[in-house]
Amino acid sequence: MSDKPSVLFVCVHNAGRSQMAAAYLTHLSGGAIEVLSAGSQPADQINPSVVEAMAEEGIDITHEVPKVLTADAVKASDVVITMGCGDVCPVFPGKQYLDWALDDPAGQGVEAVRPIRDEIRTRIEKLAAALTGAAR
Fold first, then answer.
1. Is 11 a catalytic residue?
2. Is 72 helix (H, G, I), strand (E, B) or coil?
3. Catalytic residue status for 89
4. 7, 8, 11, 38: which one is catalytic?
5. Quick one: three-class SS letters along 83-107?
6. Could you report the per-residue pLDDT of 26-49, keeping only the tens digit for each?
């Protein structure tokens, strides 16, 4: 484990919310935070509306693929942020767990994804500032 704080974002399909959160934290932290994302039941691909919404922000996530949640990913993380995966997420002592109640962008057009994206960005800005000790 590195000296950098590590954050794992988890949602059911790892095709929307967790991908947006991971992309924002990677982008906004400038590499100061190790970022992982996973899903309890990963989809086959990232939601195209999510890809489009993030592209509007200048963030390219076309190369990302949904990943399955593993106990190792949770163990390797300092902070685990869940987004609708419920009791499926493994819990380990000593980890900080946050549950972000966010609408699921699955099956939604880009117009419906934008407000979810914007809410995620607001939360990520606060999280990045808290983890790096820097005001954003």
1. yes
2. helix
3. yes
4. 11
5. ECCHHHCCCCCCCEEEECCCCCCCC
6. 999 988 999 999 998 999 999 999
